[in-house]
Amino acid sequence: MASAVIELIKDAPLFRGVTDDTLRALTQGSFVQRYPANVSLFDEGEVSPFVYVLLEGQIERFSVHRGRESGLGFIEAGATFILSAAITLQPNSYSARTLANSRFVLLPAQNLRAVFQTDLRFAQNLARDVAESECEVLAELKNQKLRTMAERLANWILTTVPAEAQGEWTRLPMSKQALALYLGTTPENLWRSFVALEPYGVGVRRREVSVADFAKLTDFAGPNPLIDRRKARSDAERMAAPASD
């Protein structure tokens, strides 16, 4: 079983470049799990015995306080999550649930803590992952504090709808309710923001969105690579990729 799990996770950023011995140590006692959409993975405040590596699907992070719920972002395939809590033995700082049919590997957290002490390359990978997560959190804080709701939605559309899809309908990767939670608003205010973007070429129907004029929407949105890190990172990775023949 461990060898099968190694094949599934070895190309994830956290495990790149580590030795076969390290991978075997990390995957002892691990297993693969598959859940349908809308299944809770863990709750904030728990101390999780596992770290998750998402292979397929999409996960929503969220938090609840005094009956109020807020989305904290989405986890995409290839990501490893709740690393900080696992390494420090701290309670989870958020809850998580599946947004789509998802498959992931569960690695015993104690394995990561042991390997972190003995494998320099793995420790460097983990430190890089945690540093990236901190930058993501600060970027999202600036997104919430420095932009209006319509500007947040406009920039989210720019990072989600590919430029080559101008004038076409693109399916939203999550429900409008999940998007509203993530953007820090209600479904009603999200709809008003979609309406406010109509003069800038944005159309919406059911779970689809279209952009008639990316230049006009970009002028309104005012994208900033220090805030819109997902777009900036994907552009940088594409530029760094070797040219195809």
If you had to describe this structure to a student in words, what would you say it looks like?
The chain has helices at 2-9, 20-27, 83-88, 109-118, 120-146, 149-160, 176-183, 187-196, 214-221, 229-240; strands spanning 31-35, 40-42, 50-56, 58-65, 68-76, 80-81, 95-98, 102-108, 169-171, 202-205, 208-211. A 4-stranded antiparallel sheet has the order 1-8-3-6. A 4-stranded antiparallel sheet has the order 2-7-4-5. Mean pLDDT is 89; it is low at 232-245. The protein is built from 10 helices and 11 strands. It has 245 residues and is of the alpha+beta class. Strand 4 (58-65) and strand 5 (68-76) form a beta hairpin. Helix 4 (109-118) crosses helix 5 (120-146) and helix 6 packs across helix 9 (214-221).
Low-pLDDT sequence parts: 232-245
- Strand percentage: 15-25%
Strand order in space, largest sheet? 1-8-3-6
Which whole number gives the mean pLDDT?
89
Shape: elongated
Terminal-residue CA separation: 38 Å
Helix percentage range? 40-55%
Biggest sheet, in brief?
4 strands, antiparallel
Radius of gyration: 19 Å
Query: How many strands appear in the DSSP assignment?
Result: 11
User: Helix count?
Assistant: 10
Order of helices and strands: HHEEEEEEHEEHHHEHHEEHH
* Helix/strand/pairing category: alpha+beta
Short synopsis of the structure:
This protein is of the alpha+beta class. It has helices spanning 2-9, 20-27, 83-88, 109-118, 120-146, 149-160, 176-183, 187-196, 214-221, 229-240; strands at 31-35, 40-42, 50-56, 58-65, 68-76, 80-81, 95-98, 102-108, 169-171, 202-205, 208-211. The strands form three sheets. A four-stranded antiparallel beta sheet has the order 1-8-3-6.
